Amino acid sequence: MIGKKKKILFSPLEPGKSLKKAMDYTPKEVIAHIKNSKLRGCGGAGFPTGLKWELAFNAPGTQKYIVCNADEGEPGTFKDRLLITDHPKKIIEGMCLAGYAVGACEGIIYLRAEYRYLRPNLIQAIEELKTDSLLGENILGKNFSFNVNIHLGAGAYVCGEETALLESLEGKRGEARNKPPFPTEQGYLNCPTVVNNVETLCYVPYIIINGADWFKEFGTMESKGSKLFSISGDVKKPGVYELEMGTKVQEVLDIVQADNTKAVQVGGASGICIAEKDFDQPLAFESLPPGGSIIVFNKSRDMLHVLRNFMEFFVEESCGQCTPCRDGTFRLLEGIKLMEDGRCSIHYLKVLRELAQTMQIASKCGLGQLAPNSFLSIVDNFKGEILARDRVADSVRA
């Protein structure tokens, strides 16, 4: 569902309709439509989609690539799985439009290893689109060809970061690259490459059909359109919801029938955990990060246990390439265990906060920079609960 307005991604889409319309525009005009719509990446970073396409269009080189990031590994996120299952043709059509816009003739879907069972679904959609002349050689009888292949990942969380994903595509270890150069300059096989999230690509056909101004009717001044949210935890109605950008957290809790809520983790494990005082904040790029995952915790939950669970995940999934992330996540987990054992003083808690802030600045990739978010937000928003634990309180008094 979507706020008070009509839904977007869950509304019908005639296959090929956006492609037919796009063929009446030049590639530059297609890019202009996407830029004017203010569509931003739905994978978490929120980079302007039209600008990314424009950079790839302007990059020198005859071989360019469109990569669909279907490596949905963020804990609590399962929206892309739904799109791959029920709307695969929308994804592929969005890739075709991106290819036409930037001058690419090949697309790759990087599919999460755990989603291997969805591969036949994508293959079927590809074959049907080829049969209808909506994919492959001379699409719709025009001088535009675009093919899509599927690449299975190996289960690494870090490959959700676009440059680590590209390393994996090339058969290398999944590790983030130094930037610049950016993928739009030197991406897959050192060719200009656009990497877009599954959900981002699904919005593109609707924008081409209905126009940029139509899309901007949804959302806020800084965050246009709608967004899919995977909602789980202590709620009566978990699932994937399409909500207008700017929807407040309390409105979301009412929709999913969450009672007695203590905390809400917004943006997955790498997002932030908010307390009741912030439930009136909107989900938008200028406010709470609309990363796509919302995990709800009621008042029976121990927030220190929640934090330990998140940090154990980051210790396990750190690629180990850079010291701030590799050692920082481990030290934060050590600190959480000290809190549980009643051996973490207020002074050391301050040291851990400083370490987390350093990680946000010094980690090489976005995933390492976001890893300490849950630590900082839970410690700050639930400090009273954490320090009120008998064992910790005894340690502080000592």
What are the defining features of this structure?
398 residues; alpha/beta; Rossmann fold; Ubiquitin-like (UB roll); 3 domains; five-stranded mixed β-sheet; 17 helices; globular
Write the layout of secondary structure elements.
Elements lengths: L16 H6 L4 H11 L11 H10 L6 E6 L8 H8 L1 H15 L3 E6 L7 H13 L15 E6 L9 H8 L23 E5 H13 L1 H5 L9 E8 L5 E6 L4 H7 L5 E6 L5 E4 L17 E6 L4 H15 L5 H19 L4 H17 L3 H5 L2 H9 L1 H6 L1 H8 L1
Helix pairs in contact: 2-3, 2-5, 5-8, 11-12, 11-15, 12-13
Description:
With 398 residues, the protein is α/β, with parallel strands linked by helices. The chain has three domains: 17-216, NADH-ubiquinone oxidoreductase 51kDa subunit (Rossmann fold), CATH 3.40.50.11540; 226-298, Ubiquitin-like (UB roll); 303-397, de novo design (two linked rop proteins), CATH 1.20.1440.230. It has helices at 17-22, 27-37, 49-58, 79-86, 88-102, 119-131, 162-169, 198-210, 212-216, 249-255, 303-317, 323-341, 346-362, 366-370, 373-381, 383-388, 390-397, and strands at residues 65-70, 106-111, 147-152, 193-197, 226-233, 239-244, 261-266, 272-275, 293-298. A five-stranded mixed beta sheet has the order 6-5-9-7-8. Helix 11 (303-317) packs antiparallel against helix 12 (323-341). It is globular. The chain starts with 16 loop residues before the first helix and ends with a helix. Mean pLDDT is 93; it is low at 1-5.
| Shape category | globular
Distance N to C terminus: 53 Å
- Beta-strand residue percentage: 5-15%
SSE succession? HHHEHHEHEHEHHEEHEEEHHHHHHH
What's the number of domains?
A: 3
Question: Rg to the nearest angstrom?
Answer: 22 Å
| Fraction of residues in helix | 40-55%
Summarize the main sheet: 5 strands, mixed
Helix tally?
A: 17
CATH class of the largest domain: Alpha Beta
Query: Structural class, please?
Result: alpha/beta
Q: Could you give the count of β-strands? A: 9
**So, the CATH homologous superfamily of the largest domain?**
NADH-ubiquinone oxidoreductase 51kDa subunit
| Average pLDDT metric | 93
What is the fold named in CATH at topology level of the largest domain?
Rossmann fold
CATH architecture of the largest domain: 3-Layer(aba) Sandwich
